[in-house]
Amino acid sequence: MATQPHSRKRVCYYYDSDIGNYYYGQGHPMKPHRIRMTHNLLLNYGLYRKMEIYRPHKATAEEMTKFHSDDYIRFLRSIRPDNMAEYNKQMQRFNVGEDCPVFDGLYEFCQLSAGGSVAAAVKLNKQASEICINWGGGLHHAKKSEASGFCYVNDIVLGILELLKYHQRVLYIDIDVHHGDGVEEAFYTTDRVMTVSFHKYGEYFPGTGDLRDIGAGKGKYYAVNIPLRDGMDDEAYESIFVPIISKVMETFQPSAVVLQCGADSLTGDRLGCFNLTVKGHGKCVEFVKKYNLPFMMVGGGGYTIRNVSRAWTYETSVALGVEIANELPYNDYFEYFGPDFKLHISPSNMANQNTPEYLEKIKTRLFENLRMLPHAPGVQVQAIPEDAINEESDSEDKVDKDERLPQKDLDKRIVPDNEFSDSEDEGEGGRRDNRSYKGRKRPRLDKTENKEGEDKPKEEVKSDKAPVEQETR
């Protein structure tokens, strides 16, 4: 399967302005606020003009139980910080409480995260886009009936299940510093999904992802694990990523790809131990994009939030095929990026414990495993199940395009380039204007700002909400 030179693709981006409000609790390393920071940065870079921005629907319990158990989703739906005492036994059973705390809006957070990935898969299936991005997704540790590693609902598995309705073979690639165990486990016995995970291994969460974990039954050799050591740098990462993904593409021949872009593999991450730069991390996106396959990009880990937003903004630009300046534009979180206020970061001087000999040994072993695969396995022809989301709406065809619509109707329509939603949240005196970030309370919401000299109507507002379309059911 040959790669093609860079070309501009139709890119869809999923974001809900509420996602940054959720708060795991004081001292918890997972901060959904990083998704809002990313969004604000790519708005100020002007990247919003080059892609379609959608507000995802909230995934329903029915959608989430396509993978998760009914009782687990029922539990997530009912648990709240003020009724935890009565759920004691269930909390232990479902592994909720410590790493995966109960917080206000937990279920809605899961709905938004999952809704974005399911909607992205539907969009790719309809061939309405070549690349779909959901930075609010990528929660790869969640299991069928268990929360794990800050993850409650596995949006990736739900997205892949949707892709499998139209695609014979789906490739999942994970560049988070932690092993993508929840996704691997979900597809461990099938030959229709190949999972490839590059991760730190050895006395490190979640403790899985050995080189010898290769799948089982029909899925034998369809789980590919690349166990790495501390200090992985850009050059070493590229030296193993490119040949392994090239061989996987050639052998497995997927018709769609999902890339989990966990940013905790960056240098200086609060929980990570690799030494990748934003450019090195982004090269993975660049390489996968060249295969010109339907491509879903999701978020994941990342606990030094200024670097997470740098990486995901840069990778959005890579997906769009446009270059952005290293000098950061002024944005609502500008002070986070001091003292240099640059997009790109430098590696530290930590030693890379992944020797060329060690990496060569891994490659050799994995190539032997990949040779065991039947070439491009097929699947029996069957009727295509119904899409998870019905994007068509009869009422939209009857709308007078010149008539001003209520907000709820506007939310259901694609907003053309350079247009923004009106909202009581925006502008001076709006709800956003009255909030500030103090101590460890919820992060402040974005202020708004009109920029002079941009080719857009005067009433447009640069806002955290951006041009969005509600994914309609």
Automatic annotation (TrEMBL):
Compartments it resides in: Nucleus
Location of region: Disordered: 390-473
Major enzyme class: hydrolase
GO molecular function list: DNA-binding transcription factor binding; histone deacetylase activity, hydrolytic mechanism; metal ion binding
EC number: 3.5.1.98
Main location: nucleus
PANTHER family listed in its UniProt record: HISTONE DEACETYLASE HDAC1, HISTONE DEACETYLASE HDAC1-RELATED
Name listed for the protein in its UniProt record: Histone deacetylase
